[in-house]
Amino acid sequence: MFRSKSTSETGPDVVLIGAGIMSATLGMLLKELQPELTIAIYERLDVAAAESSDAWNNAGTGHSAFCELNYTPQKPDGSVDIKKAVNIAEQFEVSRQFWSYLVEKNIISNPQEFIQSIPHMSFVWGEENVDYLRKRYKALQQCHLFDTMVYSEDQQQLREWMPLVMQHRDPSQKVAATYTEMGTDVNFGALTRQLFRYLQKLDGVSMHFNHDVRDLKKSDNGGWIVKVKNRDTREKNVLNARFVFIGAGGGSLPLLEKSGIPEGKGFGGFPVSGQWLRCNNPEIIEKHQAKVYGKASVGAPPMSVPHLDTRMIDGKKALLFGPYAGFSTKFLKNGSYLDLPLSIKANNIYPMVSAGLDNIPLTKYLIAQVRQKPEDRLEALREYFPDAEMKDWELEMAGQRVQVIKKDPEHGGILEFGTEVVSAADGSIAALLGASPGASTAVSIMLNLMKRCFKEDVDTEAWQQKLKQMIPSYGQSLLSNPELTAKLRKWTTEVLELQQMETA
C-alpha cells in the first residue's frame, strides 16, 4: 500500500510538476482515494493553468469526437475508421462523470463557470468531402455514443444550424454537415483553478508558484530527489518524494530526460505553435452558436483543424477562428527558444531525424503558415464565413504544443498526434507527453496512470469502491451498454446544469 509518512521524514508523498488540468485531476483523484497523502505542486508561472490548460491556449471543445474529423480517418478502401472517435467519446463521458461527482460534493460550486452546452458540427464542401462525411456519419451511427447526431446536405437546414457559415454562400456549392446538441464548450483553465482552490484548502497539500523544477534524481530509498528553484528569490531547495508526476505540458520532455529512466529513452518532441482570429464585433458573435469543424489541409497537424468556434470565456461569449499553425523552437508559450535544441540527445536524435524525413509535408505546411499574411488568414476564414471582414477580427496567440516523437522499429521514429504516458517500471515516476485530446480525457488518462503507478492500491477493495462512487461506469464499458450510457448522460447533464448558451 502507498502509505503516507511524516513529511518531516520523507518530504511529500507526491510531487506534481505543473499546475495544469492533468496535475489538478491527479491530485484530486488521489486525495479523494487516500486523504492522508501529502502532495506538493510546483508551477514555474505565477498562476495555475496559464499554459496548455488556459482558455485562449486550448480549443476547449470538450473533445467528444462529434465534430473532429481528424479522429475518423478514411482508409485506403474508402471506409471510415471510427475506432479513435469511439474511444475519445467514451473517455469524455468518464470526465463528465467525475466532474458531476465533484459538483455533488460541492468541490465544484458553479459548473457554469467551466462547462456549457453548445452544438458540435462538422462542415465540408465539394463532392469528395461530402461523400466522406456521409460515410463517416453512417459509420458513427453504428455506435450509440453518437446517436444524437444528424446529417444533412440541404442548404436550408444548414442555414438554420449555422447562419454565418451559409450566409451568401454559393447555392450551387455541394455542402454537407453533421449536427449534435450533445456538444460542450469547456474552459479548462477555469476548471483547473477551481480544483486547485479546493486542493489548497486540504491538509497535506502545498502549492508553490514561480518555482522551477531543475533536476530529478532517483534516491536510494526508491523515491526521487527533486531540485527546485524559486524564481523570485533565486533560493534553491531539495526535497524527497515517493512519487513524481511530470505534467508540465511542453516542459515535460526535458524533465523526463533529466530523470534518466530507461523508459524515457528515445522520446523526442516537435513543437507546433498557433494563432487564433478573435472576433471583436458583438453583432457577429451573437449570430453564431456552434462549434463548426472542417477538414484539415493536406500535411496539417490535427491540432490545426480549422473551426469557427463559439466559446464562453470568463463569463463572456467569444467567437474564434483557427488555429493557424506555426513553428517555434519553444516547448512552452512562456518557454525558451533553446527548448528544442537542448532536448536533442544521443538516444533520440535518430527517431527525431527519421520522423522529420517522414513528415516533410508537415514541415512545408508549417513554413507556409508562418509566412501567411493577414490577407491569407482572411481567405481561410471566408471559407467558413463568406462575409468576413478583417476589421471585425484581431490576431490572438494560441498555445504551444509539443507533439510526441518516439522510436519505431520500422521507421526509426514516428510522430504521434496524441498523448503518451511514460512511466518507470517501478511506478515511482510518470510523465505525460503530447497534446490533443488531452484535457478532455484527463480523467481517463490519470486513471490509467494510477493503474500503472499505484497498482496495489487500485486493486484494493477500498479504492475500487471509491472509484465506482466517483465514476459510476468505472470497470464497465459504455460502448457495450447503451442503457447505462443514457442513464449517466442524463445524470451528468442535470448535475452539470448543461444549458445552451444564451443568444441575443
TrEMBL record:
Return the broad EC class. oxidoreductase
Q: Which cofactor does it need?
A: FAD
Presence of keyword Oxidoreductase: yes
Query: Any one Gene Ontology biological process term?
Result: tricarboxylic acid cycle
What pathway is this protein a component of? Answer: Carbohydrate metabolism; tricarboxylic acid cycle; oxaloacetate from (S)-malate (quinone route): step 1/1
In short, the EC number is 1.1.5.4
Cross-referenced HAMAP family, in alphabetical order?
A: MQO
Family that this chain belongs to: Belongs to the MQO family.
Q: What is this protein called?
A: Probable malate:quinone oxidoreductase
